[in-house]
Amino acid sequence: MAQLVERHLAKVEVAGSTPVARSNRTVGQGLFRCPSKPGRAINCALRHSRKHTPDQIVRKLREAARLLAEGKQVPVVSKHLEISEQTHHRWRKQFGGLKANDAKRLKELAHENTRLKRIVADKELEIDALREVAKGNF
Predict the structure, then answer these.
(1) What is the distance between the alpha carbons of residues 42 and 19, in angstroms, rounded to a whole number?
(2) pLDDT one-digit tens code per residue, 5-25
(3) Which residues of 108-124 are buried (b: 16+ CB within 10 A; e: fewer)?
(4) Alpha carbon of 123 to those of 60, 88, 118: distances in Å?
């Protein structure tokens, strides 16, 4: 654990964060000011953000369903799967009864939808600019 904290300390120092001591926690435990969110502290030693593939999400949801059927509580299941309760509930809402390939297709469609929305917004800006030029208000 100490090596992990030292590794994160080195990364945070490179990023320009400053250590902060809060209540009974010390700098050695990995609590730092977050450079992107002023006034907020983050626990660098325990936070690992990662992107899950649709296959991993479906696999974790199946594992969660199995553990919940055995009578375990959602907080215990979430901790076992190394995700937050909020993430678990969000995934269940999004990917509830989907298979891995369906989840992958859903992600692809969401990315394509975002790209198309961006294209439409760009076209709207071009149309507005052309209208202004046509009016002579430039």
Answers:
(1) 10
(2) 555 545 544 444 444 444 444
(3) eeeeeeeeeeeeeeeee
(4) 40, 38, 9
